[in-house]
Amino acid sequence: MTEPDEAQTAPTASPAAADAPLLNRAAWRRILPFLAYVFFIFAGDMLERMGHTPASLLWLYPVKITVVIVLLALFWRDYNELGRPAPRRTVALAAAAGAVVLVLWISLDAPWMIVGAAAGYDPRLGGAIDWPLALVRLAGAALVVPVMEELFWRSFLMRWIESAEFQSVDPSRLGIKSFVVTAVLFGFEHNLWLAGIVAGAVYGWLYHRCRTLWAPIVAHAVTNGLLGVWVVATGNWSYW
């Protein structure tokens, strides 16, 4: 990870750029799916505080994922960084990195590495797994969340820290500041904060090295997919 030469890379300010909004249309189209996802997390928390049981709120996840899918579909044409598939070597590297993150994720669980308590997503009803709910949860985590989160954390935020005109920032030119800030914020999005920081660092490194958003998306998908299989197999629902 290198810091770019400011003398060579600093854009020349123009009157039009000075009047430009802090967040343009491209930014909002990467932010809104993420905000919708976060909204449902807070809504679920508030409903629990009002007396609803976690079991009675299992329906929220399918609704949440559906809303995110609709938003991603509406904005898909604006996600230029997803237009080209990643080379096979990149996919292989990303998949291997995602598997390593999974091992670290379920290992970095000492008390000091955890903030708060996560109830997780327990798809059991009447003592038996409700497989439609479990499969929706697994598919959402492995196929939808990686796209939504990487568009926000890596494609938008990581580049926006470098420049408000974030679409002009090549991933290979990302600096230490954007790498560290994004990894730390991504980490504290999760109650396993240290595992989250490690995951954010790995996904950020993949984006910087491979210069394609598909690299962190594939790694994130592998991590979440394997984690979901492990959760269902072991019953460690708090990891969901």
Automatic annotation (TrEMBL):
Keyword tags: Hydrolase, Membrane, Protease, Transmembrane, Transmembrane helix
Keyword DNA repair among record annotations: no
Residue spans crossing the bilayer: 31-47, 59-79, 91-114, 174-207, 213-233
Biological process (GO), any one: proteolysis
Domain of life per record: Bacteria
The keyword Coiled coil belongs to this UniProt entry's keyword annotation: no
Record-annotated CAAX prenyl protease 2/Lysostaphin resistance protein A-like domain positions: 133-225
GO molecular function: peptidase activity
Protein known as: CAAX prenyl protease-related protein
Organism: Massilia terrae
InterPro entries per UniProt: Prenyl_protease-related, Rce1/LyrA-like_dom
